Amino acid sequence: MTKPLPTVDAATAAAELSTVRDFLRHAVSRFTEAELVHGHGATTAFDEAAFLVLETLRLPVDKLDPWLDARLTAPERKAVAEIIEARVVTRKPAAYLTRRTYIQGVPFYVDERVIVPRSYIGELLFSDLFGGDDFTLVEDPTEVGSVLDLCTGSGCLAILAAAIFPDATVDAVELSPDAFEVAKINVAEHGLEDRVTLFNGDLFKPLKTRKYDLIITNPPYVDAEAMAVLPPEYRHEPELALAAGKDGLDVVRRILKEAPKHLNPGGGLLCEVGTGRAALEEAYPGLDFLWLETAESFGEVFWITREQLTER
User: What is the pTM assigned to this prediction?
Assistant: First the structure.
């Protein structure tokens, strides 16, 4: 049996390590030894270590190589050593420690009031599914005049939608008053107060009779069995943003029921359901869900048109 490495505390690391490479190696060792769970923007110990080190040093998080052998100042060494240790001791996702996360390279503010954004929809919005040669959900982004983001959380998808669909007005709804405040921060930071309108309420209720060309949503979809065994990292997130009943479809069912009344002719719904595909297809055998593929997923996001929803 391999003996565990002696634990190096933050003070010792700050005193004995000097370069970005040193702290990256130290972080990976500590994360691996502590058996941390990754999945809040990074899927491996190495990726999360790189993010944590670079973000703490205010360096571009997508460019590691230029900084690997950079020597850190004493205050920088202390800050990096302490945040690495905080990740191990608290088991909080790195984004909560840095108050920053990224989707498709776009930065967003986050804290414990809101789930750490990690939707596959962010990738789809930037992919050739919206403008490719072989297949498109939206042939011309400039023809989309209205977008709704349900369960917006931090507001990230609404903000990305405002960039992808330049002529669209974007509404975003969030049930949690706390998450709503975080969304307000992000909309303001991106200077989109005149493009993105936030509503604090339950799904479609605050929208009355408004209709949209496109509805996007990453609702709560964790089933009861999975909620019972969530790792510590995920338990730092608001339960309201995760739990969705016995089969994980409590919120999705409500969205499917109400969406047709809020979609314009020719409009559609883009919805993430995690591992709920089998349960959803069993519950709705008459609906023709189109399951989409991303770099790291298949069958976790579906597309369905207003006409398909109303013809069932």
Answer: 0.90
